[in-house]
Design a protein that fits this description.
Number of helices: 16
Radius of gyration: 20 Å
Shape: globular
Number of domains: 2
C-alpha cells in the first residue's frame, strides 16, 4: 500500500478516565471527524486515525482508516508516527491531534494540500514554534529526525534535522484556535458555524459557556477593560489591539514554557502577587484592574511549583472547585468563582486562538 497524494494523520489517545477528561475526549472525537471530512473534501487522498480508542470512531466514513495502537506497547510519538508513515507508504503526510485547529475548514486544508503537492523539500505548518498541524514532503524525510517527544516540535526538527524549507499558514482564528481544555470547548460552543456534533459534545460545559458569554459584550465596549494574563504571544496581542473595542491590560509571561529546557524555573509577576496576598485578595486586586479577567493558569501553577493532574486542571477550568484534588488549585479556583468580576480560567490556547474566536463570536452576535 502506498499513497502518493496528501494524507492526513490524526492522533487521538491518552485522553484519561476522569469525568472532565472524558468530556474532552468525546469533543475531540467529534472535532477529528469534522477535520477528516474537511480534509477529504479539500483533496486529501485519505485520513488515518492513530488511536487507542478505535471504537470511538465507528462507523467510519469513506476515506477514513483507523490504525489502532499496539496493545501493551509504551507510547512514543516519534515511533508511532514513523510506523504510520512506513506502513502506509505516505509520500506527503500531514499530522495533527484530534483537538487541533477544529475551526480549520475546507479552504485551509486545501491550502495545505496545495503546498504538499507543489514540490518536495518543504513543510507547511500553522505555527513554527508550537505546531498543531504540520505536513511535509517527501514523507521519507522523517527518517532524519531524532528524538521527538511531542508534535509541536516537529517543524523545527523538519527544518534543522531534515533540511526542509518552511511554509507558515496565515495566522487567523482558524489556524490558531485549539481544543485543549474545557474552556476552549465552551468558546467553541459559542462560535458561529459549529457542527451539530460539536455543539452536542459541548453540552456538558454549558455553565462554563455562560460564564464565558458574560465576557463577550466587553470585547465590543470601548469603555470596558479586559485583563489578559499568561503565555500571550505578540500575534495575539496585535489581534486584540486591532480587533477589540475594549482596552486590554496584558501580562505576557513564560512564553515557551512547554518547551523550556530542563532545569528552567518559571517565574510570574502575578504568581508573586498571589503568594503575597492569597487567592481571595489576589482576585479582589485583579478586579480593580479590569471588568473581567482571562487567565492562563498554567503559568501560575508552574510558578508555585504545582503539578496537578489533567483532571484537576480541567475541573478547575470548569469552576468545579469541589472536584479539584490539589489543595492550592482548589482554593484558587474557588476564589476565581467568587471574584467581583467574571474570571475565565484555561491554558495557553485560551489566551491565543481562544480569545480570537471569542472576539469573532462577540462581533458576530452583536
Amino acid at each position: 500500500m502506498g499513497y502518493a497524494q496528501p494524507v492526513l494523520v490524526i492522533f487521538h489517545g491518552g485522553t484519561g478516565e476522569g469525568a472532565a477528561e472524558r468530556v474532552m475526549s468525546r469533543a475531540r472525537v467529534a472535532a477529528a471527524r469534522n477535520s477528516a471530512e474537511a480534509a477529504l473534501a479539500a483533496g486529501f487522498e485519505a485520513v488515518i486515525i492513530a488511536t487507542d480508542e478505535p471504537a470511538a470512531f465507528v462507523p467510519l466514513p469513506p476515506g477514513v482508516l483507523v490504525d489502532e495502537d499496539r496493545p501493551g506497547e509504551q507510547f512514543s510519538y516519534r515511533e508511532r508516527l514513523a510506523w504510520v508513515i512506513e506502513r502506509y507508504g505516505l509520500e506527503r503526510p500531514a499530522v495533527m491531534g484530534s483537538g487541533s485547529v477544529p475551526l480549520l475548514g475546507v479552504a485551509e486544508f486545501a491550502l495545505v494540500a496545495e503546498q504538499l503537492r507543489a514540490r518536495d523539500g518543504r513543510f507547511v505548518t500553522n505555527n513554527f514554534f508550537s505546531a498543531d498541524l504540520t505536513g511535509w514532503t517527501p514523507g521519507s524525510a522523517f527518517r532524519a529526525i531524532g528524538d521527538l517527544p511531542r508534535d509541536n516540535l516537529l517543524p523545527r526538527k523538519l527544518r534543522d534535522e531534515a533540511g526542509l524549507a518552511p511554509v507558515i499558514l496565515p495566522r487567523t482564528t482558524a489556524t490558531q484556535f485549539d481544543l485543549d481544555t474545557p474552556t476552549d470547548l465552551a468558546i467553541l460552543a459559542l462560535a458561529p458555524g459549529v457542527s451539530p456534533a460539536l455543539r452536542a459534545a459541548a453540552e456538558p460545559v454549558r455553565a462554563l459557556a455562560e460564564r464565558v458569554r458574560a465576557v463577550m459584550p466587553l470585547l465590543c465596549d470601548r469603555s470596558a477593560e479586559l485583563v489578559v494574563a499568561g503565555r500571550v504571544g505578540s500575534q495575539a496581542w496585535q489581534y486584540l489591539e486591532r480587533e477589540t473595542a475594549c482596552r486590554v491590560r496584558l501580562f505576557s509571561e513564560e512564553r515557551g514554557l512547554a518547551t523550556a529546557p530542563a532545569g528552567h524555573r518559571p517565574r510570574s509577576v502575578l504568581g508573586f502577587l498571589l503568594e503575597e496576598l492569597g487567592a481571595e485578595r489576589f482576585f479582589q486586586r485583579m478586579a480593580e484592574l479590569g471588568d473581567a479577567v482571562v487567565l492562563d493558569t498554567r503559568v501560575i501553577e508552574a510558578h508555585l511549583g504545582l503539578a496537578p493532574s489533567r483532571e484537576d486542571r480541567f475541573q478547575g477550568d470548569l469552576g468545579n472547585w469541589e472536584q479539584v484534588g490539589e489543595p492550592e488549585l482548589r482554593r484558587f479556583t474557588r476564589a476565581a468563582l467568587e471574584a467581583p468580576v467574571p474570571v475565565i480560567l484555561g491554558g495557553h490556547s485560551l489566551v491565543s486562538g481562544g480569545l480570537m474566536a471569542l472576539n469573532d463570536a462577540a462581533w458576530e452576535g452583536r
